[in-house]
User: Fold these one by one.
Assistant:
Number 1:
Amino acid sequence: MHGIFVTLTGFIWMTLLALNTSAQADRVVGVWFTEDRESKVEIYKTSSGAYEGKLVWLEDPRNEDGSVKRDTENPERGLRSRPLEGLVLLEEFQYNRSSGEWKDGTIYDPESGRTYSAYMRLEDNNTLKIRGYVMGMRLLGRNTTWKRE
């Protein structure tokens, strides 16, 4: 009987730990103003458990001629006609409980057409720090700060 109790206790403990980790990881979910406050990105959890973010609002969604702003700087010609609104900018972030970071993801910069390795960290509940970097070296990159809507 004692062995069953220990097993059950361990199972309950592991379940609570998993729920707590999931709650911690999900704190990044929501709509965020980008640093210049000219766009908003919605961060969500995918069915695979990764965190991604798509551009859901632009202050100026149209060009001067009235046409919809598109992903014109994309290095892949076939993707240059995609509208910016709805574009996935953050991909494949995984939460790391020990560091408190969402890591191993990428961030796409539609202004340059470049994709960077990236990690994210909440500074507080309403401030998200994102660092994009190159060549696998966190020192070679730049930061951006997003604020929760």
Number 2:
Amino acid sequence: MPSRRQSRIVAMQMLYQIHLTGEPIQLVIEQFWQSQEISAELRLFAQQLLEGTTSNLETIDVELQATSKNWKLHRMPLVDLCILRIATYEILYINEIDAATSINEAVEIAKSYSTPNSPKFVNGVLDNIRKRHQELQ
């Protein structure tokens, strides 16, 4: 498994934990690193994704709501929402990563961690975000 995918999975797990517990991001990060054997390289990218996603959550959620027709964010499965938030952060804020790569990684993570319908849903929402983002550039 590529290290970046593993970082994305770790970031998704931490974001999920933050949502469920309401604990501060730094506490979740510290606890996660204490309980997991993860390389410094993996930690760096995972932490960038988590901190970037949480710092830009309002903008990310506006974008998600605008592109996920007939779905309110609070009605989405939490795993899907976490995957979508992180991938949206990548698409909107990390120019070095191609949007297609971010979408593909999110779909693969959804295949492993969510429902059978989630990969198609995640792909559709993120593709809409990619298109909107390209139009605005």
Number 3:
Amino acid sequence: MARFENKVVIVTGGGSGVGRAASFAFAREGAKIVAADLDEAGAEETAAQIELSGGDAMAARTDVAVSSDVERMVERTMHRFGRVDILFNNAGIAPRGTVVETTEEDWDRVMAVDLKSAFLCSKFTIPIMQKQGGGVIVNTGSNCSLHGYPNLAAYTAAKGGLLMLTKQMAADYKKDHIRVNCVCPGVIVSPMTEKVWRDEGKDPEKMDKSNMQTPEEIADAVLFLASDAARQISGVALPVSGVHPW
């Protein structure tokens, strides 16, 4: 039997990168997928590919930084599938800049997408998990949750906050049999990383990717944390960064 047979998994940022890879991986193991993303076309493509492979999935256009959008997405999930077993808070953005260089607008947007979104999605799914008798939340942190990194002030602050939110939720909801963990990648070969490179005037095709992770490698770690194999693991940051100079 597949590890996630008939489990319902919400994946934010499910339209590309790690979110898409995790959606595919969960679906291959029997899960029903909600691919939530502001990029509606990307979410629909993820869901369509899963269904073409014989799986069960739906796309949900969602601005995860907006409470009403998140609430509507969760309501649609319940209408379609009737439960939520796993929440993968994965949506994120990473504009470059030091504290001096970062605009207030960029700071607020990073905090909203990278940190507030996990608060909102958890806020609306935890009561469902409580009624069901348990569940799992996995948050996408970063090595920046653990270390400072040049020119990523807002992103590092948000990911550090996300790690502590992970620990707080793990403590608050242990009694409800809800596990909460944080996967912390290094540098992922993804559309977001490529955008950062292009913004810096670099050619993604010429970048050294030997010490970077693929979305599929991060998805493997996410599935482990979501599985019964990690049933005694909660409130931890799992670095998945290979041989990295950090």
